[in-house]
Design brief:
- With about 300 residues, the protein is an alpha/beta fold.
- The chain has eleven helices and 15 strands.
- The chain has a domain of about 210 residues: Rossmann fold (3-Layer(aba) Sandwich), CATH 3.40.50.720.
- Strand 2, helix 2 and strand 3 form a beta-alpha-beta unit.
- The longest helix has 20 residues.
- Pfam families: Epimerase.
- Belongs to the NAD(P)-dependent epimerase/dehydratase family.
Length: about 300
């Protein structure tokens, strides 16, 4: 297949590009290298892709419009690009609106007349459910942050372009993805880095928030398999183990052989109290379920982060 991956230089996007190439597909990557985190981090993500005969990188901002050459002839389109995170969305709403909603609109506009597009996979988030995101896709959507609002609005754009123009879209709601290349501001990355360097973990809240963490390779496998799902469907995509934030820190201590120092901070506005994906619908439609244990996934991320020190 001729594939297009937006956010190709990011955490999930770079892994997805590598998987698609390994499966024999041709991949066009798109990234605008926002300053959410340093460009050298994203360039490191691309190390295995740059120069590969089956991969080309297009650097532009989707919100400015999508060049015809980028989408011409594309059969599978994976829209992974987004401005992530809860905290910054309270103070930089215009940026989140531009990156998550305007960019999605421009992308949909660019393919609404496509004769080759077979599937558009839109990467959404458990944040569309709000503070309590445990269950299946029938949970009410009640975002508790501007970030979640922009991502839910992106889902609705996909629905409208499916209904009115026949854009063949599938929505995947990601739950707490972790693993090698995880973004530096994400919790597990920060916990591991603090433990490995002997610095205190800055823990917001009581640490009893429950997370259903998803290993990145499991996530990518689900994304690829979802190309076989029925158009217009929405699926939860999450790991099978539910652990508290404190439990995750204890696992990191055990796997790294080092003790953590915890520094307590007030809870963040809009943070989720519980996330746990019921992925029964995704399994029923495409036969996917997570296979990586939390211990195995954390061990791989710890070893990767050691190489960054």
């Amino acid at each position: 297949m001729r594939c297009l991956v937006t956010g190709a230089a990011g955490f999930i996007g770079s892994h997805l590009c590598e998987r698609l190439i390994a499966d024999g597909h041709t991949v066009r990557g798109v990234d605008c290298f926002t300053d959410y985190y340093p460009r050298p981090v994203k360039e490191r993500n691309l190390a295995n892709l740059r120069g590969h005969a089956q991969f080309t990188l297009h650097e532009f901002d989707l919100a400015d419009g999508v060049p015809t050459a980028a989408v011409d002839g594309v059969e599978w389109l994976f829209h992974i690009a987004a401005m992530p995170g809860l905290n910054k969305s309270w103070t930089h709403f215009d940026e989140y609106n531009r990156c998550n909603l305007v960019a999605t609109h421009r992308l949909l506009e660019s393919v609404k007349e496509s004769k080759t597009l077979k599937k558009l996979i839109y990467a959404s988030t458990s944040s569309v459910y709000g503070k309590y995101a445990s269950g299946d896709e029938t949970l009410p959507t009640k975002p508790s942050s501007p970030y979640g609002i922009t991502k839910l609005s992106g889902e609705q754009l996909c629905r409208v372009y499916g209904d009115e123009f026949g854009v063949p879209t599938v929505v995947l709601r990601f739950f707490s993805v972790y693993g090698p290349r995880q973004r530096p501001e994400m919790g597990i990355h920060q916990f591991i880095n603090a433990v490995l360097t002997g610095r205190p973990i800055k823990l917001t809240g009581d640490g009893l928030h429950v997370r259903g963490n998803t290993f990145v390779h499991d996530c990518v496998d689900a994304v690829v398999k979802s190309t076989a799902a029925m158009t217009g469907e929405t699926f939860n995509l999450g790991g099978g183990e539910l652990v508290t934030v404190l439990d995750t820190i204890r696992k990191i201590e055990r796997l790294s052989g080092r003790a953590a120092t915890i520094e307590r901070h007030p809870p963040r506005k809009g943070d989720q109290f519980a996330t746990g994906a019921d992925v029964g619908k995704l399994f029923k439609h495409v036969g996917w379920k997570p296979t990586t244990s939390m211990d195995d996934g954390l061990a791989q991320q710890i070893e990767w982060q050691k190489t960054l020190l």
